[in-house]
């Protein structure tokens, strides 16, 4: 296809503003799939994505569109992940296309991820076409939202397209705008050595790793031996094709085109997003700029509830890692929890998705320990250690100082909740960087320690704003602070899985809260159980669980034998969800719930 008849684009939007629905309509209207094959949200392929309504892996589809000028255009839509955790993948996918449809829900307006994603698109030099969605709803205020787009984002929204992705209203205008308002791909040279951007990859049980590429220069052909410039791998290409959205083989891909290749690549790890693909011989000399592999920032322990499930957990984790290069793991042993894995994630959502998949797809009951960030421990001898697990905190006498990661968080919230949001940020050691207004919404920008955010910040934010706040963040750097390791002792023994790093000023408060929570969460035993929070050897908070005086069955006075048996059965079932620790049984839920702050 000639370059001038190609349009490569993405759709940027806040979660739930209708990105997937619009993509489905575009596919449907161009007859790319037969009506009977049309499933809701074609692009979200994984079940979990569909259930949670989030798009995780970038996907792509090639659409053929006969435009009003009588020409048939090839439109390549790259679907980008919508969530903060995958910001790097979003920014890479954006480099593969020249334009974006900016979808904003006309009943909601601009949200935090609208901003984050549109700025990424602007950084990638995209032409942007604003689209106001959901105008079928009575609450839609397209005028106001168009004004807001101009005020907050600073792009012209006077010719924003008004649509309803649900009813199909306005979709033909969107197709026409893609052709007339978005630019064709930048000039590439077919005669130059192959240079292609690795946009995404995923593992397919039949084909092995499928790699999505955008060709910059040269031509990719079946039988080529390709080289990944950063990871160094060399592979013979056995298949080239495009997604329509089902895979369709083609003979070659030239400049400006987007498609996939397979090359008997065994693991997704060998195909890093952002890498440059070239040929083994006579390849290009300089790779595309700006490659950085995504690094995990949040760590937690995953342990099987039933120790007999360890081997199953290992198999499941290995399989998952095949398809997820940003997920890391290593074996970990905990005195409290036995054998498990210390796992690294791009963020909290990523953590939740992985945990859900392990539990649901692989049927393993898991204990998740408190998420932790990476601390930099500066030792007195000058060495700098990365601490992924509070349990590994070195002896303080050798430690000079500790640094923690900070983030820049952007929160958009209706005025009426602003006070609560500011208080929440303040409570979490935040420092205000900016506070501005856009209509009846406020935008607060805060510098916050990541460790105050990883656990329940997002839940708290949602609850204090009744779900009306939106949130986005990026890591901004490391800063020294007065951080200490706090241990929890149950029945006078430290439980490693409950150790956390906290700011010294917040230690008493956190310690008290954890002891109180554990007092509720750990059932009574035949003896009394002290629960203590300690820093070094010093106890800073304490609670006691009173001893159980009577046998539970004593409650069933009289001889109701069935009731008595039921009660005992219930107790036995409950036991399975417990972990024996010393003489004390700790319920599985306690490990994570102990940390939640009200
Ligand atoms: P993520 O995949 O989570 O990023 O969300 P999304 O932006 O892809 O949103 P999605 O297409 O899943 O739409 C979110 C919800 O809005 C769904 O329940 C849609 O049915 C609904 N929706 C989308 N477009 C319209 C519209 O034009 N009108 C109405 N009334 N509802 C819509």
Automatic annotation (TrEMBL):
Q: Does the keyword Membrane apply?
A: yes
EC id: 3.6.5.n1
GO (cellular component) term, any one: plasma membrane
Q: Which domain of life is it from?
A: Bacteria
Positions that bind GTP: 16-21, 133-136
Cross-referenced InterPro entries, in alphabetical order?
Answer: EF-4 (IPR006297), EFG_II (IPR041095), EFG_III/V (IPR035647), EFG_V-like (IPR000640), EFTu-like_2 (IPR004161), G_TR_CS (IPR031157), LepA_C_sf (IPR038363), LepA_CTD (IPR013842)
Q: Which UniProt keywords apply?
A: Cell membrane, GTP-binding, Hydrolase, Membrane, Nucleotide-binding, Protein biosynthesis
Write out the coiled-coil annotation as residue ranges: none
Q: Which GO terms describe its biological process?
A: positive regulation of translation
PROSITE patterns, per database record: G_TR_1, G_TR_2
Q: How does it sit in the membrane?
A: Peripheral membrane protein
**GO molecular function terms attached to this record:** GTP binding; GTPase activity; guanosine tetraphosphate binding; ribosome binding; translation elongation factor activity
Q: Record's SUPFAM superfamilies?
A: EF-G C-terminal domain-like, P-loop containing nucleoside triphosphate hydrolases
Which transformation does this protein catalyse, written as a reaction?
Answer: GTP + H2O = GDP + phosphate + H(+)
Localization per record: Cell membrane
EC class of the enzyme, as a word:
hydrolase
Task: List each copy of the Tr-type G domain by range.
Answer: 4-186
Q: Which Gene3D superfamilies match?
A: 3.30.70.240, Elongation factor 4, C-terminal domain (3.30.70.2570), Elongation Factor G (Translational Gtpase), domain 3 (3.30.70.870), P-loop containing nucleotide triphosphate hydrolases (3.40.50.300), Translation factors (2.40.30.10)
Q: State the function annotated in the UniProt record.
A: Required for accurate and efficient protein synthesis under certain stress conditions. May act as a fidelity factor of the translation reaction, by catalyzing a one-codon backward translocation of tRNAs on improperly translocated ribosomes. Back-translocation proceeds from a post-translocation (POST) complex to a pre-translocation (PRE) complex, thus giving elongation factor G a second chance to translocate the tRNAs correctly. Binds to ribosomes in a GTP-dependent manner.
So what family is this one in? Belongs to the TRAFAC class translation factor GTPase superfamily. Classic translation factor GTPase family. LepA subfamily. Belongs to the GTP-binding elongation factor family. LepA subfamily.
PANTHER family per the UniProt record, alphabetical: TRANSLATION FACTOR GUF1 HOMOLOG, CHLOROPLASTIC, TRANSLATION FACTOR GUF1-RELATED
Name of this protein: Elongation factor 4
Q: What is the lineage of its organism?
A: Bacteria, Pseudomonadati, Pseudomonadota, Alphaproteobacteria, Rhodobacterales
Instruction: Name the gene behind this protein.
Output: lepA
């Amino acid at each position: 296809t000639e370059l001038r008849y190609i349009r490569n684009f993405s759709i940027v939007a806040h979660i739930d503003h209708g990105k997937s629905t619009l993509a489905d309509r575009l596919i449907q209207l161009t007859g790319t799939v037969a009506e009977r094959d049309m499933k809701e949200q074609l692009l979200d392929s994984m079940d979990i994505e569909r259930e949670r309504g989030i798009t995780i892996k970038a996907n792509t589809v090639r659409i053929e569109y006969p435009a009003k000028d009588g020409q048939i255009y090839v439109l390549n839509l790259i679907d980008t992940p919508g969530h903060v955790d995958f910001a790097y993948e979003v920014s890479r996918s954006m480099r593969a296309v020249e334009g974006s449809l900016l979808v904003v829900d006309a009943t909601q307006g601009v949200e935090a991820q609208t901003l984050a994603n549109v700025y990424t698109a602007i950084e990638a030099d995209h032409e942007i076409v604003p689209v106001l969605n959901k105008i079928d709803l009575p609450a839609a205020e397209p005028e106001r939202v168009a004004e807001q787009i101009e005020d907050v984002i600073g792009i012209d929204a006077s010719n924003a397209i008004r649509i309803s992705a649900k009813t199909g209203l306005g979709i033909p205008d969107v197709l026409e705008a893609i052709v007339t308002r978005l630019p064709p791909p930048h000039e590439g040279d077919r005669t130059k050595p192959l240079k292609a951007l690795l946009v995404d990859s995923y593992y397919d049980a039949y084909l092995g790793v499928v790699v999505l590429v955008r060709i910059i220069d040269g031509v990719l052909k079946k039988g080529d031996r390709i080289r990944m410039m950063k990871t160094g791998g060399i592979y013979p290409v056995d298949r080239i094709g495009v997604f329509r959205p089902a895979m369709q083989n083609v003979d070659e891909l030239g400049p400006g085109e987007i498609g996939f290749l397979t090359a008997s690549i065994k693991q997704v790890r060998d195909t890093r997003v952002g890498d440059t693909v070239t040929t083994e011989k006579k390849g290009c000399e300089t790779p595309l700029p700006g490659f950085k592999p995504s690094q995990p920032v949040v760590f937690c322990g995953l342990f099987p509830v039933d120790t007999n499930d360890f081997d199953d957990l290992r198999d499941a984790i290995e399989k998952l890692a095949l398809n997820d290069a940003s997920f890391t793991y290593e074996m970990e042993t905990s005195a409290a929890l036995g054998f498990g894995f210390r796992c690294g994630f791009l963020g909290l959502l990523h953590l939740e998705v992985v945990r859900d998949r392990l539990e649901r797809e692989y049927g393993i009951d898991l204990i998740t320990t408190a998420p932790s960030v990476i601390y930099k421990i500066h030792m007195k001898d000058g060495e700098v250690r990365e601490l992924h697990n509070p349990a590994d905190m070195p002896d303080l006498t050798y430690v000079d100082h500790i640094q923690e990661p900070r983030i820049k968080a952007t929160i958009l919230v209706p005025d009426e909740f602003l006070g609560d949001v500011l208080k929440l940020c303040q409570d979490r050691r935040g420092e205000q960087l900016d506070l501005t207004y856009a209509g009846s919404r406020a935008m607060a920008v805060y510098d916050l320690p990541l460790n105050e955010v990883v656990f329940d910040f997002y839940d708290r934010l949602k609850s204090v704003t009744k779900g009306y706040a939106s949130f986005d963040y990026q890591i901004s750097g490391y800063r020294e602070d007065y951080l200490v390791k706090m241990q929890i002792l149950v029945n006078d023994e430290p439980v490693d899985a409950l150790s956390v790093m906290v700011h010294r000023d917040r230690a008493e408060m956190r310690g008290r809260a954890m002891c109180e929570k554990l007092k509720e969460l750990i059932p009574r035993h035949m003896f009394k159980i002290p629960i203590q929070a300690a820093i070094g050897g010093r106890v800073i908070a304490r609670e006691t669980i009173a001893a159980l005086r009577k046998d539970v069955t004593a409650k069933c006075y009289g001889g109701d034998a069935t009731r008595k048996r039921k009660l005992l059965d219930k107790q036995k079932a409950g036991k399975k969800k417990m972990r024996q620790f010393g003489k004390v049984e700790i319920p599985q839920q306690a490990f994570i719930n102990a940390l939640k702050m009200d």
